[in-house]
Amino acid sequence: MAAPILGAALGAAAAYRAAQGLGEAASTVAGAAGGFGDALNRAVRGAIQTGHQADASATAALTGTGSVTDVVLAISRAELALQTATTVRDRVVTAYQDVMRMPI
Predict the structure, then answer these.
(1) Four-residue CA torsion sign, 31, 34, 40, 42
(2) Which of 10, 81, 87, 99 could be bridged to 47 by S-S, CB 3.0 to 4.6 A?
(3) Is 13:40 a contact under the CB 8 Å cutoff?
């Protein structure tokens, strides 16, 4: 039963990495020294960093030192990271609920 849950989580982590342009495969994420928890921690930190970059880009555009194209790209990346984090959260909650429904 743990294999489908782990497979879904690794698939979500791989999708996040692909969206961030890192291009690491799910097998690399699974074989990381810290395991899934560390991979998830890095993914969350990456999403937060992407949000900060979007904020900085928007601020630069408002002050006249940045371009609108950079703002649109940064905000699109931040939106994609947020959607990915939401999807991972939903899958984790669903997996937890499936485990809790299992008969003893």
Answers:
(1) negative
(2) 81
(3) yes
How many beta carbons lie within 10 A of that of residue 80, not counting itself? 16
Q: Measured between alpha carbons, how far is 98 from 93 in angstroms, rounded to an integer?
A: 9
The 3-state DSSP class for residue 10 equals helix
Q: What one-letter code names the amino acid at 102?
A: M
3-state class of 39 per DSSP? helix
- pLDDT cut 90: percent of the chain above it: 42
| Largest CA-CA distance found in the chain, in angstroms, rounded | 63
- Fill in the amino acid letter for 51: G
Which residues fall within 8 angstroms of residue 15, CB to CB, at 6 or more apart? 84, 87
Site of tokens 């960093």: 49
**Tens-digit pLDDT profile for residues 25-42:** 444 544 546 788 888 888
DSSP secondary-structure letter at 66?
S
The answer, yes or no, to whether residue 80 has pLDDT greater than 90, is: yes
